[in-house]
Write a structure and sequence with these properties.
The structure holds 2 protein chains of 2 kinds. By secondary structure, chain A is mainly α. Chain A folds into 2 domains: 52 residues; 203 residues, MetI-like fold. Chain A is 73% helix and 1% strand. In chain A, a hairpin with a 5-residue loop joins strand 1 and strand 2. In chain B, the strands form 2 sheets. In chain B, strands 1, 2, 3, 10, 11, 12 and 13 form a 7-stranded antiparallel beta sheet that branches. In chain B, strands 4-5-6-7-8-9 form a 6-stranded antiparallel beta sheet, with no helix packed on it. By secondary structure, chain B is an alpha+beta fold. Chain B has 2 domains: 171 residues, no CATH class; 200 residues, MetI-like fold (Orthogonal Bundle), CATH 1.10.3720.10. Chains A and B meet through helix 2, helix 6, helix 7, helix 8 and helix 9 of A and helix 3, helix 4, helix 5, helix 8 and helix 10 of B.
């Protein structure tokens, strides 16, 4: 190696430095190796465990892996359109598979909303409503949790703990609990997503507030402004674009979350999707997937465009 | 810097009068914000109508919500005091009472006496022989006394020990005493006397206090004692619901030989006692009893929780391993091929936009319910998300280091290794850690659709509406896991990224 060739010409100090460097290098390599070995052990253990506790074994089920593609091929291509727009099917035999027109939601005697569009709208509304709700309460909570605005550590700690618990509490449990109290419908999903959103947005918001420029606040304080005026005129104008950006990011996440919660607890597009996949209704499944896929892409694109307008290049950030 | 830049009030007002547009916001801006708020307000009203929220909230069964919430952290013991037609009484515990089969709680005081009773002996072909058990329970007097009877229905007179007076003490201020067809219920300093007659039904003596309700004369009276419990008084049966804080039989269930033993007794049994089951030591028996506790199902809950953790871990790890090489193809400053960039990016978008739910449902069909399905769903979705984030991180790198490495004549692979990787690797690892933690949460939810893990178990426990204490147990475990992973991921990320987290 080049270093060993050079070492003969090194002074005493140089030799010490080189020895340290080699020791450090060795230690670093050992740690890297140990870390990778640990990861490999954890991974193989996890894979074994997952395979052992799964209903079907991985290698037994692998040949059936692409079965789901078969679940997606309808009898003929036009069936997808019929399922999506609730048009009568020529194959209608009275079974649930082809009963598209039965899902129509009539607005007047002749105008109707196709079932899946209505359900998609419901999911979208769950997401928007709960994001606005979460934004509202997260907005109120975040100023009490920010170090630079709330000097009292007890209030601050309380606000942060509340947000942490709201964020970490499993949404399924909230949905299930309210499902037991309220009747079936989208409201339990709405409450679950809203509660989670308050915690998640509150956390992101107070981090933005803690990074805010405090000069406007100082100016207002010098002019004798009270706490509310300092927050409203000093902090809010500079954090609002970031808040809106996080709001939109959360909206993207909530569209997905409300679909999943809907699949478990009723309400929205999630439930018909779960049912049609489990019953093997190809056309219906494909219609719902296309609808869901395009809605998610539309919401994502709209939100990305709006965020770029609001905060410029830093638009894509991680959000919980 | 001071004198001529400072203005007095008159000067400021003069300037304000000369340039009014500087001090008042533009009208379009003000109108826009008002419009946005009005729009949000209208939308909320529309949603209120769309989901008929008001109506649902009014129709909700809020009374039961309190009971369900109380079930999270407390349990009820439900003895019934049954009154036969001849006025004799019996205290009966339900089959799966948390007190076990031979319950004699201190808060139920019973006075017994011997009486001659005429009873109908049911037609049975062979009466069960009296149990050998020496601890004869007088709470089930019909079962053993009287010796063996032969077949055929007939009337028989026997001398039996029956309950003549039963007193249930809920707490120091609340109790119910039953004797001679009369019930005396005391709560909060008030005493209510109730007559039970087979012909007239249930009749209170005097006015009903606030805590007692009766829908129609003669029907049952419900006594609500708040958090300590409640009771239904009917002419043939008084159902007691006595609520105790805590979780019942959390360690040993009622079938275990260690049931109802104090901690010290269990320790001494385990360390020095004779073998209860000759085939194995007491320690292994105790451990087995804990794991297979029929009420709490510790082993099953822990297995499912581990599945959830494994799903998030393997899913995220595989996703970052696959996303890592692909993101180099997607970044336009690394791979100078617009076609390839677009294809890879759209592929990421596709994986991301087909929801985790859809992937979960498909893989559940492919692999059957279990962690493999959830793992694959997380893997597919997060390959998309991580790939997109990685590609964006790559496109934002500092180009100078690459140029430096390139200028000394390094091979293309070495340029990436020494010019690019050192810049992005901490970001990549940090984002993978972040998703690992966040997937631990999502794995709970997709579990509920059948993709393995604790989600399904939670959902099943909630569906019966009677196992809220199990839900609470699992929620606490999930919260602990999430907090541990949250801190671990935060710690590792702050080590990787220096001060800057999030």
């Amino acid at each position: 190696m080049a270093t060993s060739a050079l070492s003969t010409t090194l002074s005493d100090n140089g030799a010490v430095v080189e020895r340290h460097w080699q020791e450090l290098n060795l230690r670093r390599r050992t740690y890297t190796f140990l870390g990778l070995a640990l990861l490999a052990v954890a991974l193989s253990g996890s894979l074994w465990f997952a395979n052992a506790t799964n209903a079907g074994k991985f290698f037994d089920r692998l040949p059936y892996f692409f079965d789901f593609v078969g679940d997606l091929v309808p009898r003929d291509g036009a069936e997808i359109g019929r399922a999506m727009f609730d048009l009568p099917s020529p194959y209608d035999d009275g079974s649930l598979k082809y009963n598209y027109p039965e899902g129509r939601m009539y607005l007047t005697d002749s105008i109707y909303v196709p079932e899946y569009f209505y359900k998609m709208l419901e999911t979208l509304n769950i997401a928007i409503f709960s994001t606005i709700f979460g934004m509202f309460f997260g907005f109120i909570l975040c100023f009490f949790a920010a170090r630079n605005l709330m000097p009292n550590p007890w209030v601050r700690g309380l606000a942060r703990r509340v947000m942490e618990i709201l964020r970490a509490f499993p949404e399924v449990v909230i949905a299930g609990f309210f499902l037991a109290i309220l009747s079936l419908g989208p409201i339990p999903a709405m409450i679950a997503v809203s509660i989670h959103t308050v915690g998640a947005l509150g956390k992101l918001f107070f981090e933005v507030v803690e990074n805010a420029d405090m000069k406007p606040d100082e100016g207002l304080r010098a002019a004798g402004g009270n706490w509310f005026e300092r927050v409203w005129f000093g902090i809010v104008p500079q954090v609002l674009p970031n808040f809106m950006s996080y709001f939109l990011l959360r909206l993207e996440i909530n569209v997905r979350a409300s679909t999943i919660i809907g699949a478990v607890g009723g309400g929205g597009i999630g439930e018909p999707l779960r049912l049609s996949i489990s019953q093997g209704h190809e056309a219906k499944t494909l219609a719902i997937i296309i609808l869901l896929f395009s809605t998610i892409i539309a919401v994502d694109q709209f939100s990305a465009w709006l965020r770029r307008r609001l905060v410029g290049d830093q638009a894509f950030q991680l959000a919980q | 810097m001071t004198a001529h830049t400072m203005m007095n009030t008159a000067q400021m007002e003069a300037i304000a009068a000369r340039h009014p547009h500087l001090l008042t916001g533009s009208t379009s801006k003000r109108i826009r914000s008002i419009l946005i708020f009005a729009g949000i307000g209208l939308y909320m009203i529309y949603s209120w109508w769309f989901f008929s929220i008001g109506q649902v909230l009014v129709n909700a069964n809020w009374g039961i919500a309190g009971t369900y919430l109380a079930d999270w952290v407390s349990y009820e013991v439900r003895p019934d005091i049954k009154i036969a037609t001849d006025g004799t009484m019996q205290v009966v515990y339900p089959r799966y009472s948390p007190l076990g089969p031979d319950a004699k709680p201190e808060w139920v005081k019973i006075e017994t006496k011997m009486v001659d009773r005429t009873i109908d002996v049911p037609a049975v072909t062979q009466q069960a022989a009296p149990k050998k058990s020496s601890s004869f329970s007088f709470m089930a007097p019909n079962s053993a006394v009287g010796g063996s009877a032969d077949t055929g229905a007939r009337t028989e007179t026997r001398t039996e020990e029956v309950v003549s007076r039963a007193t249930v003490n809920f707490n120091s201020a609340t109790s119910i005493a039953v004797a001679d067809g009369k019930v005396a219920a005391t709560h909060g300093g008030e005493t209510l006397l109730i007559d039970l007659e087979h012909s007239n039904g249930v009749t209170p003596e005097g006015a009903l206090p606030e805590w007692a309700t009766q829908k129609r004369p003669g029907e049952k009276i419900t006594l609500a004692f708040g958090m300590t419990g409640w009771a239904d008084v009917d002419k043939e049966k008084i159902s007691i619901h006595n609520r105790f804080p805590g979780w019942a039989n959390f360690i040993f269930d009622t079938n275990s030989p260690f049931f109802n033993k104090s901690f010290g007794e269990v320790i001494s049994l385990v360390t020095s006692g004779d073998r209860i089951d000759p085939s194995r030591s007491n320690l292994s028996l105790a451990w087995n009893n804990i794991l297979y506790n029929s009420e709490w199902q510790h082993l099953d809950v822990w297995t499912k929780l581990l599945q959830t953790i494994v799903m998030a871990f393997v899913g995220t790890l595989f996703a970052s391993i696959i996303a890592f090489p692909l993101c180099f193809l997607a970044a336009r400053n690394i791979t100078r091929n617009g076609m390839l960039n677009q294809v890879t990016k759209r592929f990421f978008d596709f994986l991301r936009s087909v929801d985790m739910l859809i992937w979960a449902l498909f893989f559940t069909r492919a692999f059957g319910p279990g962690p493999l399905a959830g793992m694959s769903a997380i893997f597919f979705t997060d390959t998309g998300t991580l790939g997109k984030l990685y590609a964006e991180a790559l496109e934002n790198i500092d180009d100078k280091q690459r140029e430096g490495v390139k200028s000394v004549g390094a091979a293309p692979l070495a340029v990436q290794r020494f010019g690019v990787l050192p810049q992005v690797l901490p970001v990549f690892a940090s984002q993978a850690l972040y998703f690992w933690e966040s997937n631990t949460r999502s794995a709970t939810i997709i579990g509920a659709v059948g993709a393995g893990g604790i989600g399904l178990k939670l959902w099943e426990a909630m569906r019966t509406n009677s196992d809220w204490e199990n839900v609470c147990y699992m929620v606490i475990l999930i919260l602990i896991v999430v907090f541990i992973f949250d801190s671990a991921s935060n710690f590792l990320r702050s080590r990787l990224m220096g001060q800057k987290t999030h």
